[in-house]
Design brief:
Number of helices: 14
Number of strands: 0
Shape: rod-shaped
Strand content: under 5%
């Protein structure tokens, strides 16, 4: 009550000059209750940022002394354009301060997605993928696709994501990108794209996915076909096996000077003996082109 009286007298101009000077000399004294509240909040936010490495305070956060810091931070963000330049600069100098945490979060995730997409040749992050910084990038991508179905989704966000390499809004397109990423991982590990039909890459049925791409090649977009061609995707596994057998036979002939391949012979891991036997049995049904190459 005494403090309120001194402030009231100062406001009315009835406070004696010597008392004004004495009060002014007190550290932390403010003539306005709002100014006092602001300064307390500012100091609490500095302490919070120093302890937690940032200023992302949840709205219901309360300091140990009972000060509602979360409410204070929300108020500063809400009234940002009404704050004077000095207060805005003081807040901006605090570690991790952002006026709009939602937009700041979007920007952080967007940059992480761009980096991931560039490294993975446009493949989307798996749903459970988490960056080294702890960002749940896979879940965030799924969230953006869901949010984009609402009328109030930001057009700027939509345009920003559209510019990310490999980004797609549809689940089917996302499934294709997931398969492409799994194929890249398979190739990194095995050195080729000859995926067995029943093969699963983690929980993804990569063998089935590869078969679907071959079946749909006629209707596939040029962009997708080009991406698959660039990594050495095998469009016709049987033709690829035949070509490999032919190359192995050429190597055998160059070394041995004849074509009498023993039935059980392996040429660098390839069952050349079996392949030669199959070609001889298929002589009548073999294409003229292959026949002439063997001759």
């Amino acid at each position: 009550a005494w403090v309120v009286t001194q402030r009231s007298r100062h406001k009315s101009g009835s406070l004696l000059p010597d008392r004004f000077d004495k009060l002014k000399e007190i550290s932390g004294w403010h003539w306005s209750v709002r100014d006092a509240w602001w300064e307390i909040g500012y100091q609490r936010l500095i302490e919070y940022a120093d302890t937690n490495g940032g200023s992302n305070v949840i709205v219901d956060y309360v300091c140990s002394d009972g000060f509602k810091l979360g409410v204070w931070v929300r108020t500063q963000r809400k009234n940002w354009h009404q704050l004077d330049d000095i207060r805005r600069k003081r807040l901006e100098a605090i570690t991790g301060w952002v006026v709009d945490p939602v937009e700041a979060n979007f920007s952080n995730y967007l940059h992480a997605l761009i980096k991931y997409s560039d490294e993975m040749n446009g493949a989307p992050p798996p749903t459970k993928f988490i960056t080294t910084d702890g960002l749940q990038l896979g879940l965030w991508c799924s969230s953006q696709r869901s949010l984009a179905k609402k009328a109030n989704y930001s057009e700027e966000k939509r345009k920003a994501l559209d510019q990310v390499k490999g980004w797609s809004w549809g689940l089917r397109a996302s499934k294709w990108e997931q398969g492409f990423e799994a194929l890249l991982e398979y190739k990194r590990r095995c050195g080729h794209c000859k995926v067995p039909q029943q093969h699963h890459e983690d929980d993804f049925a990569l063998g089935s996915w590869a078969g679907i791409q071959r079946a749909r090649v006629a209707s596939m977009s040029l962009e997708r076909r080009k991406r698959l061609d660039e990594i050495g995707f095998v469009w016709d596994p049987l033709a690829e096996v035949w070509e490999e057998g032919f190359r192995k036979l050429e190597a055998f002939v160059a070394r041995e000077k004849h074509c009498k391949v023993p039935s059980g012979h392996n040429e660098n891991g390839f069952k050349l003996g079996n392949w030669v036997r199959v070609q001889r049995r298929s002589k009548l049904s073999m294409s003229a082109h292959r026949h002439s190459r063997l001759d």
